Amino acid sequence: MKVVKHIKIKSGMQVKELVESMSDAGFGAGKIARASEIMKKMFEDKECKVFFGVAGAMVPAGMKEIIIDMLDNADVFVTTGANLTHDLVEALGNNHYLADSKLSNEDLDDNKLNKQGIDRIYNVFMKNEVYPELENFFEKNFDEIKKCTNIKELLWKIGELVPENEKGKNSILKKCYEKKIPIFCPALADSGIGLMIWGRKAAGREITIDAFDDMKEIIDIAWTCKKSGVIYIGGGTPKNFIQQSLQFSKGASYGIQITTDRPEPGGSSGAPLKEGISWGKMKSDAEFVDVFCDATIALPLIYASVK
Amino acid sequence: MKVVKHIKIKSGMQVKELVESMSDAGFGAGKIARASEIMKKMFEDKECKVFFGVAGAMVPAGMKEIIIDMLDNADVFVTTGANLTHDLVEALGNNHYLADSKLSNEDLDDNKLNKQGIDRIYNVFMKNEVYPELENFFEKNFDEIKKCTNIKELLWKIGELVPENEKGKNSILKKCYEKKIPIFCPALADSGIGLMIWGRKAAGREITIDAFDDMKEIIDIAWTCKKSGVIYIGGGTPKNFIQQSLQFSKGASYGIQITTDRPEPGGSSGAPLKEGISWGKMKSDAEFVDVFCDATIALPLIYASVK
Amino acid sequence: MKVVKHIKIKSGMQVKELVESMSDAGFGAGKIARASEIMKKMFEDKECKVFFGVAGAMVPAGMKEIIIDMLDNADVFVTTGANLTHDLVEALGNNHYLADSKLSNEDLDDNKLNKQGIDRIYNVFMKNEVYPELENFFEKNFDEIKKCTNIKELLWKIGELVPENEKGKNSILKKCYEKKIPIFCPALADSGIGLMIWGRKAAGREITIDAFDDMKEIIDIAWTCKKSGVIYIGGGTPKNFIQQSLQFSKGASYGIQITTDRPEPGGSSGAPLKEGISWGKMKSDAEFVDVFCDATIALPLIYASVK
Amino acid sequence: MKVVKHIKIKSGMQVKELVESMSDAGFGAGKIARASEIMKKMFEDKECKVFFGVAGAMVPAGMKEIIIDMLDNADVFVTTGANLTHDLVEALGNNHYLADSKLSNEDLDDNKLNKQGIDRIYNVFMKNEVYPELENFFEKNFDEIKKCTNIKELLWKIGELVPENEKGKNSILKKCYEKKIPIFCPALADSGIGLMIWGRKAAGREITIDAFDDMKEIIDIAWTCKKSGVIYIGGGTPKNFIQQSLQFSKGASYGIQITTDRPEPGGSSGAPLKEGISWGKMKSDAEFVDVFCDATIALPLIYASVK
Question: Which residue of C has its CA nearest to A291?
């Protein structure tokens, strides 16, 4: 039992100092500090393979650079089709936009946005005009794309095809391709990229991407690694797909989960990491922490304390 | 503005009466009543195609019969691999189990469960011994299964192969197969069924299930239907996959969403239905309601008031 | 470990049957059934004093009749000034109103409501015109009211003074007065009733209500009772004030808590009942359950299954 | 509509820089930045009276120094009896303690803690042995304390009596006394300090603290101030008591609310600030933001960006 020491704010304080001072505080503050410690250990442990899962719509929210940075420490990356589609949208030269911060969210008029051709993701906007550009990209490159046979190959191929210009270089897909980071997205059909593939198929073009083929790779990594660690941003399919693979591992030694989902309704996204011990996905003596926080707040804070 | 009338509980009260009396109450109670009204309208509207999305782990929680019942009113069904795997586990003769209700959930010892070969899903247990039976099922039937080329076909095929005995007949997969209800599961790789397919592939058997092929069917239904309605239990891929398809529709005319996820972190699961108006997924004059409640409480209540 | 049995909905089903069938289900459904069992036991246990705490704004939401009914089984009642003010507002002949259920909550225009003299409580409205009537009531009766010296006396006095007509008879305050149910409200200053007392004092009238005096009574009840049980609707001061008193008891033997507050930020409202064991507020072998649900949904359901 | 710019983490980054970069991001990150902007404006606006409300148990969690610091910018302070009791406990020389961060919270054994004389507040501990010291303090100083006639006087008096040593000087109560910051706590009876007063009264000592008397002062400040701003940490009685007073003001011009409570169940703690516009508590053109976050994470982050 260590004594609670009160956080003392100093002018010009570094994030590192703030998070360090949180380690003597309770509730969520202490968990941020704990996540920072675990992330440091996980990244420094040379034997540890890091499985990084990112759900939700972190890219439109402004978390792309942090994810790209963190990929330097990741051995496996699993994400939603949404994150990858928004990444591609930006790689092709488009932007996301912020609602006026003076408006409370409840004041946003979805009917008006619809008429303006704007799609809303909480307080972030995307213009419908991004779709024709996505279409062009897939149409233009389809002869290359259609050679792929599983989802990881397809995603690496898209990363390869993304333009080498300033926007394109700064992309999750490009990074995964260039650094050969295994990237998985089991529900890719459920995304804008999925719609692009459907569009080609609907137009009579042929492509067959096996839904199960790249499971072999992620399970192999889990099976063969000496140690593993997990970082889950927001649950969903990315978390569950990693957890499933870890059933074939020795159980993760490190774990960080950032989510605001409740455990009570029994979904995988809200389940505490501890539950994974019963399944053998997490070691019983693993170092892990569940951070209950909006990831757009917690992740920059934790990562800035580690970098 | 109608007057709040206080709910008056009578001994022997029917669920229908209770939910009706909730229509004069505020907060969540009023929303349960509103969901009941909308479900009734949606089911009675002959022009309306009902898209039913069920996330999470509703089957192990005891919601299977309600889902099977509701499928009589559904034109499209989208769910997680988890729900389908747990459905298959039961169809093959196994059970799920409840933790002792006298234990608070925090007292469950995951390490001990792990040693006993028990997997925990909040306060529900499944024995590891279900896996060899799943293996047998897939091994025995693989020559049939391997003919499938997309996920819907695969799921109908599994439904067809499920034994015709008492346990097997009472299955979501069997029902979808028999009633020819289009069933989609974009992240099927992320589930026990996915593991079974991987297992066969790892053993050198051949099967190719296209990840994008059955998108055509759900988008066709969305594109061609006069009117549509959505029922979302818990968000996730099932909700998002339906929402995506509805971008190609006139926009849903009815909507019910039951979730406990927060909107603020921007994920699709927690997004209010209203947000879909900006995307054209929901009509601006649609009748819809967001019910903030554990679905295992709200769904039986709402459905019992409608049946 | 008992087997999960799936809830089967029948047409015309009684609430009692539905809740009973939930006892074989997991997640929130099982907790509703558990709360029902515990409530029955608590009400039937002749040795048990029931401490009933109701936070929030349950009266404007339409829960007044259920609370009045449940008071027949309560030995101590603690609530917010808000609930009592709204109860008095109705006892004096006024109503609360519901926002149009077709509007999503985000569409309510608070600026417009303000100009119309309407105060909003989520999706429930109250007209500003209730205040002059409250003023009249306190002005007219002040010679009686000013004789009170503690909060419980004051609340019983108000209950006594509430008109004997149809509206007035149907009041929490009247019921507590008539049945001599000890009623506590430590933060009464923080409410419309508090404002009425302030108004008289500001006008030079004299009244002194001791803030601590009636603690003696609730602590005496806790101290002397053989057994105790708690029912908490929504946490807040009502829960905390009862919990505090129970530190002087043998610890509660039964407990039901219905709240949607999170435990992680450390507040009393979101703390699981289990935490009370460390403080001696709850017996280590008590029968208790935390129900994560909007109380306007869970309470009618649970109470209808018990009555 | 401004473009989303992705947060870029630099080594050695200051909190100020991080929060500034959040202003170009969406979801919670953008709200942290918005809260920082509003806090700066509110503190710099010489005409603005700042009403600061702190609920929950922020003191045991390690937030005491930040609160003491922020009091330099506060014109009115409202808090829970819990925060003040924990403040006094520390001022008298005791500590709070942290649970082992390697334990997940679910593993804490409340029964064992109870036998060890340790009270749990989520992951923070307090020893029962603090109570005799509180008793001594009140017993020793009762002749001074009993002269007080309202809650604010009582709290200032306690602040005056707190020892002038190192521990005592670093206290919220001392600070409010010394700087003559009006401090209110409508539910003081619902706290350890309340228990101490009850203890003296039970022992036959006399003291009368009027429950409504200091309402005059907070309403006067609200009534007479040119402009007002509110900062709410966690809702509860502190928020509601300030909001109530603001009904007598021109409506707040600035607002920051940090809470994880849901709006749907209709409680004051979870109500968005926007709702206050209908009541006239908030100006329709006020600058305000609702931050959905554990306050022990959000408050240090926001305050460090402002200081």
Answer: C264
Q: How far is B106 from chain D (nearest CA, A)?
A: 5
State residue B100's pLDDT score: 83
Is C106 a residue whose pLDDT tops 60?
Answer: no
Three-state DSSP state, B291: strand
Show residues of chain B in contact with C62, CB under 8 Å: 4-7, 22, 24-26, 29-30
Say if residue C44's pLDDT is above 80. Answer: yes
Question: Is D3 buried (19+), middle (13-18) or exposed (0-12) by CB count in 10 A?
Answer: exposed
Cβ neighbours of residue C287 closer than 8 Å, sequence gap 6 or more: B102, C38, C41, C253, C254, C255
Count CB atoms within 10 A of the CB of residue C102.
Answer: 13
- Across the interface, which of C31, C106, C262 has its CB nearest the CB of A106? C106
CB C91 within 8 A of CB C171: yes
By CA distance, what is C262's nearest residue in A?
A262
Band (pLDDT 50/70/90 cuts) for residue C104 is low
First-to-last C-alpha distance (Å) of chain C:
29
The conformation of residue D117, written as its DSSP 8-state character, comes to T
Distance of CA C266 to the CA centre of its chain: 22
φ/ψ of C233, rounded to 5, equals -100, 100
pLDDT band at B107 (very low <50, low <70, confident <90, very high): low
Asked whether the predicted pLDDT for residue B103 surpasses 90, the reply is no
CB-based contact, C179 to chain B, within 8 Å: no
State yes or no: pLDDT of C122 exceeds 90: yes
Say which DSSP state C109 is in: -
Chain B stretch 29-88, residues whose beta carbon is closer than 8 A to a beta carbon of chain C: 29-34, 60-66, 69
pLDDT over 90 (residue C92): yes
Distance from CA of A175 to the nearest CA of C (A): 36
**Amino acid at position B67, single letter:** I
Contact in structure between B292 and D264 (CB atoms under 8 Å): yes
Low-confidence spans in chain D with pLDDT less than 70: 103-107
Cα angle B185, B189, B195 (rounded to 5 degrees) comes to: 130
pLDDT above 60 (res C105) = no
CB-based contact C14 B12, cutoff 8 Å? yes
pLDDT-flagged residues of chain A (< 50): none
Is D49 known to be catalytic? no
CA distance B218 to B225: 11
The one-letter code for the residue type at B154 is L
CA B107 – CA B104 distance, rounded (Å): 6
- How many other β-carbons are positioned within 10 Å of the β-carbon of residue A62? 28
Is C187 in Cβ contact with D198 (below 8 Å)?
A: no
The CA-atom distances, in angstroms, between D278 and each of C55, C60, C274, D219, D225 are: 22, 16, 39, 19, 20
Q: Is residue C66 classed exposed, middle or buried when 0-12, 13-18 and 19+ CB atoms within 10 A define those classes?
A: buried
D18/A123 touch (CB, cutoff 8 Å), yes or no? no
Q: Is the pLDDT of residue C272 over 90?
A: yes
Cα(D235)–Cα(D269) distance, integer angstroms: 4
Q: What b-and-e string marks burial along A270-294, b requiring 16 or more CB atoms within 10 Å of the CB?
A: bbbbbbbbbbbbbbeebbbbbbbbb
Q: The tokens of C273 are what?
A: 């009942």
User: CB neighbours of C285 closer than 8 A, spacing ≥ 6?
Assistant: none
Answer whether A111 touches C (CB < 8 Å): no
Write out the two tokens for A7.
Answer: 């956080």
Give me the catalytic one of B112, B281, B283, B307: B281
Q: Let me know the angle formed at the C-alpha of A60 by D293 and B288, rounded to the nearest 5 degrees.
A: 75
Describe the strand order of the beta sheet including C183-184 as a list of residue ranges.
C183-184, C76-79, C48-54, C227-233, C252-259, C282-292
In angstroms, the CA D142 to CA D204 distance is: 12
Chain B touched by D292 (CB under 8 Å): yes
Is-above-0.95 flag for pTM? yes
